[in-house]
Amino acid sequence: MNQPIATTSLPCMDTLPTMHDLPSDDPLEPGLPDEFHGIQPQLLAETLSLQDYAASDIFCAFDLNLYYDPNNTGWYKRPDWFLVVGVPRLYQGKTTRSSYVTWDEQVNPVMAIEFLPPGTEAEDLGPFAPKPLPPTQPGKPPSKFTVYEQILQIPNYLVFNETDRRLRYFRLVDGQYEEQAIAPQNPLIWIPEIKLGLGLWTGIFRGIPQEWLRWCDAQGNWLLTEAETERLAKEQEQQARSRLEAYLRSQGIDPENLPE
């Protein structure tokens, strides 16, 4: 005699937690990358174009170990994105990097960006956080904010919160970060060391329509990716062809039957 198969009733879908209710990272290691952390750096890298540096003298990376203390070689931070200029694109001109070791490279980043997830405000914002961290205990690594400000002295530090689209810019002034005012209606900043602007662009990238951090020139024109440049060139070529065909027809010439 066949036994009935036991079934488990499913809970009501309306009572189940959603993405917003469940943690996206390890509670013991907050701030692990989510989807945005992987896509946004691609747009930053693809639109980065510097006047004063060749591509072979620029290094940018995301979620890569950044070692900063030769006296504590196991201490590192993992910026969501950082930029170094005046160093070879390849390590010693030969290989890709698995980390960035500041005492080996002898050049510190000119800019660091953090994409602020819940739970890392104190680490990323230091004294500007709603609840700052207590002073660093002896023998313990300092916070990310402290490393960027006091140890590496990165001149430009940005924090972007994807949830509320708030962009905050900290500029190193006399050895300390000072937050710079950003107009909410036009969140655009200028980075003098690299002669580029950075702002919030509303558009579609990797098939996702939303606001993204994107580079622009001094006039506020968004810099294009290679794919966008190629598409624009094709559109301009097609427009020029259409104008020529229209002109020929106006002169009684069939552009489809031109003499050899």
Could you characterize what this model shows?
By secondary structure, the protein is an alpha+beta fold. It is 21% helix and 24% strand. A six-stranded mixed sheet has the order 1-4-6-7-8-9. A three-stranded mixed sheet has the order 3-2-5. The protein has a three-stranded antiparallel sheet with strand order 10-11-12. Strand 8 (166-173) and strand 9 form a beta hairpin. The longest helix has 25 residues, at 226-250. The N and C termini lie far apart (88 Å).
Describe the protein's topology.
Blueprint: H1 35-46, E1 58-61, E2 66-67, E3 76-77, E4 81-85, E5 100-101, H2 102-105, E6 111-115, H3 121-125, H4 144-151, E7 156-161, E8 166-173, E9 176-180, E10 188-191, E11 196-205, E12 208-216, H5 226-250
Parallel strand pairs: 2-5, 6-7
Antiparallel strand pairs: 1-4, 2-3, 4-6, 7-8, 8-9, 10-11, 11-12
Strand content: 15-25%
Order of helices and strands: HEEEEEHEHHEEEEEEH
- Shape from CA axes? extended
Average pLDDT over all residues = 85
Taking pLDDT < 50 over at least 5 consecutive residues as the criterion, the unreliable ranges are: none
Largest sheet: 6 strands, mixed
Distance between the termini: 88 Å
Helical content band: 10-25%
- How does the helix and strand content classify structurally? alpha+beta
Overall number of strands: 12
The Rg value, from CA coordinates, equals 25 Å
Q: Strand arrangement, largest sheet?
A: 1-4-6-7-8-9
By DSSP (H or I, 4+ residues per run), the number of helices equals 5
